[in-house]
Amino acid sequence: MASKSDPKPNFSLASPPGGRSVRRFQEADRGFSNMYWAPVAWGDEVTPIGLWPMNELPYVLAKTPLAAQRDEGMALFREAERTAPGSGGMAIYRWGKGLIVRSDWYAVRDAVMLALVRDKFARNRALGELLLATGEGLIEEGNDWGDLYWGVALGDDPERGIKAGSGRNRLGQILMQVRGELRRGEAHLAAAL
């Protein structure tokens, strides 16, 4: 795991005036990605709360209410990590694309993502500081794979009818919301284990 778990955020509330924008979750900003290895707590009525190695894994598992499917996803993740360390995130992401999602998924997916992002940045001090260091800057999950719900297109893709800059940027909006919550020192962000 990338850092020691600490369920009580204790950050410096100072932030740079204006801040800096984040357009893509790479290099120094890789920590904003759901694929970044950092402990995050999650659980629901099917899966007991526990620590997960990255946001992507519990997010994808939450798409199905079936314990057997979640077990299948976990087995796939573990096998991918065993055979090629670091590949589990993409393996579970691809697996999740083939799932028939639970009936309320599109109504609850933002709440699932918000809970995961809150916990990740409150639990992992260095990541919380990285988020706070953006000040009031715009955070966008810029991508070239066409995710126009969680992110923003970095370039045109005429074959798919995608124009650069299009997208809802829900992940960026959630990160900016959590940044404000961290700055205010809200205590509810990290789940108790």
The CATH class label is Mainly Alpha
Distance between the termini: 17 Å
Largest sheet: 2 strands, antiparallel
Report the principal-axis shape: globular
CATH superfamily: YbiA-like
Number of strands: 4
At CATH level 2, the architecture is Orthogonal Bundle
What does this molecule look like?
The chain is mainly alpha-helical and 193 residues long. The protein has a single domain (27-183), classed as Orthogonal Bundle (Tetracycline Repressor, domain 2), CATH 1.10.357.40. It has 6 helices and 4 strands, in the order ββαααααββα. It has helices spanning 56-61, 67-83, 88-97, 105-123, 125-132, 170-183, and strands at 40-42, 50-52, 142-143, 152-153. The strands form 2 sheets. Strands 1-2 form a two-stranded antiparallel sheet. A two-stranded parallel sheet has the order 3-4. Helix 2 (67-83) runs antiparallel to helix 3 (88-97), helix 4 crosses helix 5 (125-132) and helix 4 (105-123) packs across helix 6. The protein is globular, with a radius of gyration of 17 Å. Mean pLDDT is 90; it is low at 1-15.
Give a quick summary of the entry.
The chain is mostly helical and 193 residues long.
Provide tags for this entry:
mainly alpha; 38% helix; 6 helices; two-stranded parallel sheet; globular; 193 residues; 5% strand; Tetracycline Repressor, domain 2
What's the layout of helices and strands?
Blueprint: E1 40-42, E2 50-52, H1 56-61, H2 67-83, H3 88-97, H4 105-123, H5 125-132, E3 142-143, E4 152-153, H6 170-183
Parallel strand pairs: 3-4
Antiparallel strand pairs: 1-2
